[in-house]
Amino acid sequence: MAKDPVCGMDVDPKEAAGRTVYKGKTYYFCSSSCKDSFDGDPEAVLTPAKEPSTPAKKGPERTAGLKKIDLPITGMSCASCAAKIEKGLAGLSGIVKASVNFATEKVSITYDPSEVHLTDFIKTIKELGYNAGVETVTLPIQGMSCASCVEKIEKALNGLDGVVSASVNFATEKATVNYIPIAVGTEEMVKAVRGIGYDVVEVRKEEDILEREERAKKEAFRRLKTKVIAGAVLTVPIFLLTYPDLFGLSAIFGFSRRTYFILMFVLASPVQFWCGRQFYSGAWAAARHRTTDMNTLIAVGTSAAYLYSLAATFFPGFFEARGFEAEVYFDTAAAIIVLILLGRLLEARAKGQTSEAIKKLIGMQAKTARVIRDGREVDIPVEDVQVGDTVIVRPGEKIPVDGVVVEGYSSVDESMISGESMPVEKKAGDEVIGATINRTGSFRFRATRVGKETALAQIIKMVEEAQTTKPPIARMADLIASYFVPAVIGIAIITFIVWYLFGPEPSFTYGLLNFVAVLIIACPCALGLATPTSIMVGTGKGAENGILIRGGESLETAHKLTAIILDKTGTLTKGEPSLTDVVRPHGEDFKEDEILFYAASAEKGSEHPLGEAIINGAKERGIDAATPEGFNAIPGHGIEAVVSGRKVLLGNIKLMQDKGVDTRGLEEEAERLSDEGKTPMYLAVDGVAAGLIAVADTLKEYSREAVKALHNLGLEVAILTGDNRRTAEAIAKAVGIDRVLAEVLPEDKANEVKKLQAEGKVVAMVGDGINDAPALAQADVGIAIGTGADVAMEASDITLISGDLRGIVTAIALSRATIRNIKQNLFWAFFYNSSLIPIAAGVLYPFFEILLNPIFAAAAMGLSSVSVVTNALRLRWFKPPVT
After folding, report:
1. What is the pTM of this model?
2. Those residues with Cβ within 8 angstroms of residue 156's Cβ, 6 or more apart along the chain or in another chain
3. 20 to 30 Å CA-CA from 150: which of 195, 377, 516, 658?
């Protein structure tokens, strides 16, 4: 046995991954990474592997304020990987000690949380080429009332050791948490959320989380509706009792003024403390954690009006002794609560409509499947289908899971997944996607993806994740919302003091009413809903059109694009050659069908893609190729065969010259075809030039239309290909592309993207998501063209389920429409609060003697949130610019 000079592991020379000779001595390596790390000095490279921990820092040992975390690592192949990770982590500021255990695949890190965060560790480990064991969980949250709740929950979750990041979406009422499972569990997260006064919808194993969440929302909506109706029934008589003379009650009952007050107190108390209970419980939960939120504003505002009225009812002498008549505002307190609850009811209903896209996707799933079990056909729940099961599908039925056809033929409607309206023909060997509809024949298929692995399940997951992410534009709104409520309370207190000291008599009453109006009219809800509601509707609309958007950041960046690069093969073109031209020489007797017959028959013995294109072209024209009697492939030149007793040559000009065939009548045509980006092949029969066959990777349908639409959006369009410049320019000319990036090697594609970015352009790269991965990652927005069941797995910012290039136009147009909608919402939210809070404070009174009644303030606040959600819902009517 030998010793690896890098990691020190024992290596069998016969099984070594590599070896090298240094100063006359042979060294063996356990892995290629160790071999690459060897610098010729065994002692120098062995040292870090033998000392797996970063050296302690000089000076006294630090313990105060430090934290320790164990991170699981994947992707290590040997001890040199451990040393590499330790070195990378040790370079971060705030790291006291980092020790990697290769055997357990974990890194133990002691760090100062004030200088460095978990996200820095994860990023560094990924940049070194490894992965940290981070998982993601989504927690449905109950009890949020405004945008400031978002900040509180995020702060509580991010404060847990082991949580990498937490993002809360107010519109979807969900928290998305990236965490390290060995350091923290969902139980701690739930406890943290409940500890600050909110609740988490927990799901039993046999339950569907979406169904459980939907039931919880429906129950909350029902309770809210009951309170609105009950509150309205009690508030109407309060108004009648507030103005007895106006409604003729004084003439009927003849009650004293105080009796009316007591009756109003009896009616208003249930509204205040039963209908408004959620405001008090929310405000108390916030107060316990020394924060404030929307509930605080409503609870303080309505309590001020209620308690003032209570004092006026039972202690009128206190007011009369100071020279003014006691008045009650039970109607104000009750109306505010009812109107705010009504606003929340309308808001909840509108928010429910924003998630329609997800509901539609979930509704597509088949409930049962017909499978072969023990030689019999049985109907089972779709959840019970297993990989490898043979599934039977009849006309008109939904395909239950993803699979591959093994028997039968049919046409399948895939519009609900891909957005393509035309049915797709399916035969043995073709993939089928779960939730699509079988239109005509019956067939059997073998299940390949079931449960959460199906294309539809992946699409639903992607859309849900996109709806919980926040674009950069939302960060400003979140930041303002976190300071909003305390600022409003401060403004309300100042308003009361100013009115009490400088206002007209009764100054206390004026001060109180304006204090309440400021608290009630402020609407952080509108700020909180402005972004997520638009993101929800926009990403959902994208899914309806076969466009999967990774998140809010991708959506925001897409609207800034100024240039777009289209990979040629598989993006602009179909990615497979097809027959385009059959050319007869002048003065010869060969007809087009004869030329194609001989060419297809000769290629029948070939497995070359160009040969397949010729054979398929002949079939499409109804020509049956014969079986060649002899066949010989001539590498780099073409083929020769005997067809129907005649000697056939098919290949390039070099083959014709070598065989002495005169091609003078065809060379100009061959040049023309080459200029068009096609591949011309000469055909000779019995030594005479019979014609030309041209094959090309043809453009996809609608490519020209898509490029024109991209130009209409103001984008510069470039083509990127490894093909020669002449072919690339021919295709660019055919579709109207501005810039040609030709003869680019796969590893250089990302550099071409960088060059455009260096010109100050915001660049999108469109490719198949696999061969173009580096370029997709380098681009500001990576757009993957996908087809079939693998599409949801593409690593891109935006994925087009179908191969239709018009989807790119739709994605960019949708991005622009969504960001425009978000800006409208934010403008309204800021304009509403910045203009109406001063009016509620009474700034118009000195000039026009106008004051805002707190009841109207409550109505305006409720309508503000509803207007933001309603505006977001307009995106449901978004129409693709090209169809």
Report:
1. 0.67
2. 192, 193, 195, 196
3. 516
Tens of pLDDT, residues 353-365:
656 666 677 777 8
How far is the CA of 43 from the CAs of 40, 47, 78, 88, in angstroms? Answer: 9, 6, 18, 21
Which positions are annotated as active-site residues? 567
Per-residue pLDDT for 610 more than 90? no
**Kind of pairing, strands 716-720 and 563-567?**
parallel
CA-angle at 300, arms to 299 and 301, nearest 5°: 95
Q: What are the tokens at 641?
A: 């065969």
**By C-alpha distance, which of 456, 459, 547 is closest to 814?**
547
- Cα–Cα distance measured from residue 481 to residue 159, given in angstroms and rounded to the nearest whole number: 20
Residues 786 and 757 sit within 8 Å (Cβ to Cβ): no
Asked if residues 49 and 8 have their Cβ atoms less than 8 Å apart, the reply is yes
**Half-sphere exposure of residue 322: CA atoms within 13 angstroms, side-chain side:** 12
Token pair for 20 = 């090298």
pLDDT band at 33 (very low <50, low <70, confident <90, very high): low
CB 364 within 8 A of CB 416: yes
Q: How far is CA 495 from CA 309, 503, 511, 645, 830, in A?
A: 20, 10, 7, 105, 20
Cβ neighbours for 581, distance < 8 A, ≥ 6 positions apart = 673, 678, 680, 692, 693, 694
Handedness of CA 705, 706, 711, 716 (dihedral sign): negative
607 phi, psi to nearest 5 deg: -115, 10
pLDDT digits (tens, 9 = 90+) for 822-832: 889 888 888 88
Is residue 621 exposed (0-12), middle (13-18) or buried (19+ Cβ within 10 Å)? middle
Q: Report residue 39's pLDDT band, with 50, 70 and 90 as the boundaries.
A: low
**Which phi and psi angles does 547 have, rounded to 5°?**
-120, 120
DSSP sequence for 354-397: HTHHHHHHHHTS-SEEEEEETTEEEEEEGGG--TT-EEEE-TTP
What are 119's two structure tokens?
A: 């996200």
Question: How large is the angle between the packed helices 330-354 and 854-873, nearest 10 degrees?
Answer: 0
745-771 burial by CB neighbour count: b if 16+ within 10 A, else e?
eeeebbebbeebeeeebbbbbbbbbee
Q: Is there a contact between 89 and 109 (Cβ–Cβ < 8 Å)?
A: yes
Sheet holding 410-413, edge to edge: 424-426, 410-413, 437-438
Torsion sign over Cα 301, 303, 309, 315: negative
d(CA 671, CA 582): 14
* pLDDT > 80? residue 467: no
Q: Note the pLDDT tens digit of each residue in 709-765.
A: 999 999 999 998 877 788 788 888 888 999 999 888 767 888 899 999 999 999 999
52: pLDDT strictly greater than 50: no
Query: What is the rounded distance in angstroms from the CA atom of residue 225 to the CA atom of residue 316?
Result: 36
Q: Compute the distance between CA of residue 179 and CA of residue 161 in angstroms, rounded to an integer.
A: 9
Count CB atoms within 10 A of the CB of residue 12: 10
Token duo for residue 9: 């592991």
Q: In what order do the strands lie in the sheet with 131-132?
A: 95-101, 106-111, 67-74, 131-132
**Spatial CB neighbours of 734, under 8 Å, sequence gap ≥ 6:** 676, 677, 699, 704
Q: What is the mean pLDDT of residues 181-189?
A: 84
In this structure, are strands 135-142 and 199-200 parallel, antiparallel, or unpaired? Answer: antiparallel
Bigger pLDDT: 643 or 323? 643
> What does the chain come to in residues?
883
Q: What integer pLDDT is reported at residue 58 of this predicted model?
A: 37
* Cα Rg of the chain, angstroms: 36
Tell me the pLDDT tens digit for each residue of 223-267: 989 999 999 999 999 988 887 877 777 667 777 888 888 999 999
Please tell me whether the peptide bond between 140 and the residue prior to it is cis, using omega within 30 degrees of 0: no
Taking 3-state DSSP, the helix, strand and coil percentages for the chain, each rounded to the nearest 5, stand at 50, 20, 30
